[in-house]
Amino acid sequence: MLRIALMLLAGGLALVSAQPGRENATKPHILFIVADDLGWNDVGWHNPDVKTPVLDQLAHEGVILNQSYVNYVCTPSRTAFMTGYFPYRVGSQHLVFFPQQAQAIPSNFTFLPEKLKELGYATHMVGKWHLGFCNWKYTPTYRGFDSFYGYYNADEDYYTHVVAGGLDLRDDKEVVNTKNGQYGTYFFADRMVDIIEKHPADTPLFLYLPFQNVHEPLEVPKRFENIYMNVQNENRRKLLGMVSALDEAIGNVTMAMKTAGLWDNTLVIFTTDNGGWIVASGNNYPLRGGKVTLWEGGTRGVAFVHGKMLQKTGYTNNELIHAVDWFPTILAAAGGTADDAMDGVSQLDTILSGQPSPRTEFVYNIDDVFPTKQGAIRVGDYKLIEGTAGKPDGWIHPANLTDSQLDSGDPTTGTWLFNLKDDPTEHHNLADTMPDKLKEMQAKLEQYRGSLVPAINPLPDPKSNPKNWGGAWSPGWC
Ligand SMILES: *[C@@H]1O[C@H](CO)[C@@H](O)[C@H](O)[C@H]1NC(C)=O
Ligand SMILES: *[C@@H]1O[C@H](CO)[C@@H](O)[C@H](O)[C@H]1NC(C)=O
Ligand SMILES: *[C@@H]1O[C@H](CO)[C@@H](O)[C@H](O)[C@H]1NC(C)=O
Ligand SMILES: *[C@@H]1O[C@H](CO)[C@@H](O)[C@H](O)[C@H]1NC(C)=O
Ligand SMILES: CC(=O)N[C@H]1CO[C@H](CO)[C@@H](O)[C@@H]1O
């Protein structure tokens, strides 16, 4: 697979550089936008009740990615984006990193912006990190970003920027304590625009924008909520308002790119980090389950790409892509090559011209820790889940968000085999009727399990307490 990937990668570069009529033969600017907990059924191109005009237009002008997979929760997906490795090979496969635990991506993994800097890129990040902060060496400006404006953890209040008793907002290394009462999406978008306005056009720009929206808590300025006055369920109304706030912020970012003259040479990659969190009114209908589950609703992410360098646009691409692929893909677009050992493969030709994906299989997750062992893989059209698949389970329509479906239904531990080509919504478990296929898939999962790295999951450390650090979550205790 790697050899094929390298060949495709060389082809992809030729396509980029051979494009006629380009004024600037410079490397493309790259806008890598990650939405937080944005569900399959929470974007306008899947659900006309959702108002995302900016994203809809970008998606329709570009290429909608219909089989773009992510991990089941936040830290693992961000691990995949930043390292190009499946989280189970890094040690970050077990849920998310928590503020009180000394958890981080080990230093021997090179992060994507470090590679891009070697290729001459300016690298900036605005938003959520969630890849470890207990030592400065694990934080964004020590892992390849020229600048960082955002937060280390997850789940903070959109107005106070506090999570679990500590302020979590930084400008590079400095604590920001002047934003209490201001909705995060506004000032994060302002910072994004500011970076773009100050950026020298002759330097390639890598802008990593992992947005806070639409993660819990459900908070949004009234004017966004008011777009959905027809929605009865208050939580759902707020969630949708948060989606529209995200959309407006991305509109401001794209407008700034145009004004700065960068847009025509910009490759936009948009993806969610995992499926919608049904408990907080996110929705993945008609897919099964959502965030924190290995069902398709948790792992098949909304995504698209956009840019003038795309050769074929305005269609839905059904090729198999996984979160680990963005590292080598972005690197290839920037004129570099990824490490051979990496799990990710370049999808540059897949997105540029609709070539077949070099990927035929991937690992959804392997975790031996919680609540029981879990493992899931895809090979060709088939998917195997063994152990805990996660909850909420089922096919939950937005109209049914408040009912008991949220926590009842099928058992969440078992063995499932699906043919996703025929059954993308995982209604028909083939484990009993296809015993040979099941054995083959189980053997494959065991093979993958051979490279499992133990989860980084130490007990909470009292040294982390923000009281020891002037009230903010701070590096320095591991
Ligand atoms: C980093 O070190 C760990 C532990 O030795 C190893 O499992 C992993 O493969 C290494 N990763 C890289 C990218 O070198
Ligand atoms: C987008 O820009 C407009 C015009 O500057 C501003 O009024 C609005 O608050 C911005 N929206 C977001 C979400 O930042
Ligand atoms: C809503 O839930 C009810 C009861 O569980 C079920 O009969 C109905 O089909 C569901 N509606 C949708 C649109 O899924
Ligand atoms: C997207 O994938 C689904 C299968 O999950 C398929 O039914 C649908 O036709 C695909 N969309 C397009 C436009 O190809
Ligand atoms: C990014 C970049 O190099 N932009 C340049 C593209 O070319 C025009 C004129 O050909 C310049 O004005 C831009 O600065």
TrEMBL record:
Residues 1-18 form the signal peptide. InterPro entries: Alkaline_phosphatase_core_sf (IPR017850), ARSB (IPR047115), Sulfatase_CS (IPR024607), Sulfatase_N (IPR000917). Keywords: Calcium, Glycoprotein, Hydrolase, Metal-binding, Signal. Residues 456-478 are annotated as: Disordered. The keyword Manganese does not apply. One of its GO terms (molecular function) is metal ion binding. Transmembrane segments: none annotated. Its cofactor is Ca(2+). It comes from the Eukaryota. Residues 28-335 form the Sulfatase N-terminal domain. Gene3D superfamilies: 3.30.1120.10, Alkaline Phosphatase, subunit A. PANTHER family: ARYLSULFATASE, RE14504P. Belongs to the sulfatase family. This is ARSB protein.
